Amino acid sequence: MIDLYYWTTPNGHKITLFLEETGLPYKVIPINIGRGDQFEPEFLKHSPNNKIPAIVDTEPEDGGEPVSVFESGAILVYLAEKTGQFIGETPRQRLDVMQWLFWQMGGLGPMAGQNHHFNAYAPTQIPYAIDRYVKETARLYAVMDKRLGEQPYLAGDYSIADMASYPWVVPHERQQQSLDDFPNLKRWYNAIAERPAVKRAYALAEDIAPPKKDGFSEEEKQVLFGQDASRVQR
């Protein structure tokens, strides 16, 4: 059994996509990040960076004590190695998967995240910041588009690299991007959206936290974006 500490963000979706694809039994433990659940001691035992997602594998391969894993990329690698799925069958295929997974973790996720922040959440509109991150998001979309013109998925076959990247493309309109500008990416996006496991994962998200029309409240924004070192040092 996998205990999944989860909220309905792109990084959270990565893990439900994998779990739904593989059929690994799992239990969702919602961590409401707008309410501050991510700062509770029980969660911090598993995720010292106070970010979702995190997992606890209650039945690790070595038969020992339960294993905690935090950081979405590390979780995907752990689960892919545990199941032997979606990580490539040869060393070269695995290398491709890992390159594109790290590309998402170091590029697409952080840059799109800053795009979201300055477009939707920053208390003051800063044109330079918005322009910077909208352009960088477009550049990263173009990198994907070029790659996906060569093969159907980022690493050839559908893999954890695609599962990591797809949830960050779902909010493309919020990122001021049009998929019509990236036809190969659009084809990839539509193909993944039709996968039954993806539909189940996003249906689960809506059950846990239906989308808000008005976004985060001011109190929730303070919890999400108003933290500093003192919160960790308590």
TrEMBL record:
The family database entries (CDD domains) matched by this protein are listed as: GST_C_YfcG_like (cd10291), GST_N_Ure2p_like (cd03048)
Gene3D superfamilies noted in UniProt:
1.20.1050.10, Glutaredoxin (3.40.30.10)
Query: Taxonomically, what lineage is the organism?
Result: Bacteria, Pseudomonadati, Pseudomonadota, Gammaproteobacteria, Oceanospirillales
Q: Which family does it belong to?
A: Belongs to the GST superfamily.
Note one Pfam family from the annotation.
GST_N
Domain GST N-terminal per the UniProt entry, residue ranges:
1-87
Q: From start to end residue, where is composition biased (Basic and acidic residues)?
A: 211-222
The record's annotation in InterPro entries points to: Glutathione-S-Trfase_C-like, Glutathione-S-Trfase_C_sf, Glutathione_S-Trfase, Glutathione_S-Trfase_N, GST_C, Thioredoxin-like_sf
Which portions of the sequence form the region Disordered? 211-234
* Protein name, as recorded: Thiol:disulfide oxidoreductase
SUPFAM superfamilies named in the record: GST C-terminal domain-like (SSF47616), Thioredoxin-like (SSF52833)
**Residues annotated as domain GST C-terminal:** 90-211
User: What is the species of this protein?
Assistant: Saccharospirillum salsuginis
User: Taxonomically, which superkingdom?
Assistant: Bacteria
